[in-house]
Amino acid sequence: MNAPVSAAAVEAKPGATLAPALSAKVAALEALLRRIAAGHSPAALASSLSIEDMVVTDAILRLGLPIEIFTLDTGRMHGDTLAVIEAIKARYGHAITVMHPKAEAVTQYVTVYGRDAFYQSVDLRKACCDIRKVEPLKRALAGKKAWLTGLRRDQSVTRADLPEQAFDDVHGIEKFNPLADWSEDEVWAYLRANDVPYNALYDQGYRSIGCAPCSRPVVAGEDVRAGRWWWEEPESKECGLHVGPDGKLVRSKKV
Known about the structure:
Number of strands: 6
Distance between the termini: 38 Å
CATH superfamily: HUPs
Helix content: 25-40%
Strand order of the largest sheet: 3-2-1-4-6-5
Strand content: 5-15%
CATH architecture: 3-Layer(aba) Sandwich
Number of domains: 1
Shape: globular
Largest sheet: 6 strands, mixed
CATH class: Alpha Beta
Order of helices and strands: HHEHEHEHHEEEH
């Protein structure tokens, strides 16, 4: 792959021009990331290695900003998802932090309920997410002043009112969603223009990718997150990483 390039450089290349509206969003993204790095250090991007997180990852590393990037290896990830970790290292020369669940907690869940008990009820699915995602996230965010995500408003009904910035009461730090108002098409346009690596599963019909047993490709007409926990109602499709004590997506205290 080519070396990372700035949005301005991309615009100067035939066939790689970003639309004016997207160029403005890229400039706003870069300005926000610089503000976070300057005013909310230490900060970290919690990356699911999604296409959205790869946009933010590319911007952080291209700008050389002191923002940590970490991902959660739940132990049930697709091989193609884990391959993105090495793709980042190969492309940018940067090794992101990988967090793992506590082995004893995983063992207890599997022993008591069964490895795939999450198919049985929302409560058991959320319990699995708590062990494999939520608890490792808390450890990763310990000592941080802010965390960043790749969440977008049009991903699902649970994210329609997503703010760009909000105070996260659960972790007691600022939370930023820099791509809140980006469309899926804009994300892809950025990735292609900047030659950013992405998860090969997207080329197989996946549009939202989590653990292997909880993700599937989507078909025409389905929404972005239809392939996540497809056996549940849309209103319950959050793993717990982005919800408050009431179980709802954190939307309060917008800035």
